[in-house]
Design a protein that fits this description.
- The protein has 6 helices and 13 strands.
- The protein is α/β, with parallel strands linked by helices.
- It folds into 2 domains: 70 residues, Ubiquitin-like (UB roll); 140 residues, Rossmann fold.
- The strands form 2 sheets. Strands 6-5-4-7-8-9-10-11-12-13 form a 10-stranded mixed beta sheet, covered by helices on one side. Strands 1-3-2 form a 3-stranded mixed beta sheet, with helices on one face.
- Helix 6 links the parallel strand 10 and strand 11.
Length: 256
């Protein structure tokens, strides 16, 4: 007797797999089209760029102009990194952070440079010992800042030395005005009275302390202008210029 033919079985797994991938792709395409449509709706355009932070040296008009230019686009398409970069290009801005606020706002938080001293010929030093370039609208205010100078990369070292030397000088009511570090690592201090102190490259604190001790017993020295060479082991040399001494005079003070 003849056996009936067996039915051929088809493997449908590959077809199901292909169909599944196709469904995922179609869903992703539709979702993307829908999001692009929603993102393009005028209701999501950036309407407000608000500025936070203590702003002292930057005009509101400038910040508004930067915000209008950098904040082009809408809530979904605005380039956040570009907004941050454009604000950080503004003079006096140390850093900027940006965040979205639903549905049509950007909030920009700014940190201004806080000037600590003038640096070199045309720069400023902030409270973090960072160099930046800006101009005061009030020249008199700029003149109130101490003036620092030194080799590139020595900004923090000079700022820290200023704090240290100023504390020593205040013991004799002497006010430190300017401080410089030469390329050969020699320190020079200028007092508010106009006197210049040469500290040299070693034992600066000890030399400055000796000068302060003499000023405590001879306070009239703080009234003079001139130069004091403190690079002696047991004293210092003075060349004074002042109303009591109309001509330059060399004078050596010895510490016993």
């Amino acid at each position: 007797m003849r056996q009936p033919a067996k039915k051929k079985k088809w493997n449908l797994r590959p077809l199901k797999w292909i169909a599944g991938i196709g469904l995922v792709l179609v869903t992703a395409l539709v979702t993307n089209l829908a999001l692009n449509h929603v993102a393009g709706l005028p209701g999501f355009a950036i309407k407000v760029v608000s500025i936070k932070g203590t702003i002292t040296h930057i005009s509101p008009q400038m910040l508004q102009a930067v915000g209008a230019q950098a904040g082009r686009g809408n809530f979904f398409t605005v380039d956040m990194k570009n907004v941050q970069t454009e604000f950080e290009k503004v003079t006096w801005v140390r850093s900027a952070s940006v965040r979205r606020i639903w549905p049509d706002r950007l909030e920009v938080t700014l940190e201004e440079h806080v000037p600590f001293a003038r640096w070199g010929t045309d720069a400023l030093l902030n409270m973090q010992s960072e160099v930046f370039h800006a101009q005061y609208t009030d020249a008199e205010h700029a003149d109130e800042l101490p003036h620092f100078s030194g080799p590139a990369g020595s900004e923090r070292e000079v700022a820290e030395a200023y704090q240290d030397f100023r504390g020593i000088l205040q013991q004799a009511e002497l006010q430190l005005r300017d401080l410089s570090l030469s390329p050969r690592r020699a320190w020079e201090v200028k007092l508010k009275s106009g006197m210049v102190l040469e500290l040299g490259r070693v034992e600066m604190r000890e030399r400055l302390t000796r000068f302060v001790e003499v000023n405590k017993v001879e306070p009239e020295l703080r009234m003079h202008r001139g130069r004091a060479d403190l690079r002696y082991s047991n004293g210092f040399a003075l060349r004074l210029v002042g109303s009591a001494m109309p001509k330059e005079t060399d004078k050596v003070k010895k510490i016993k």
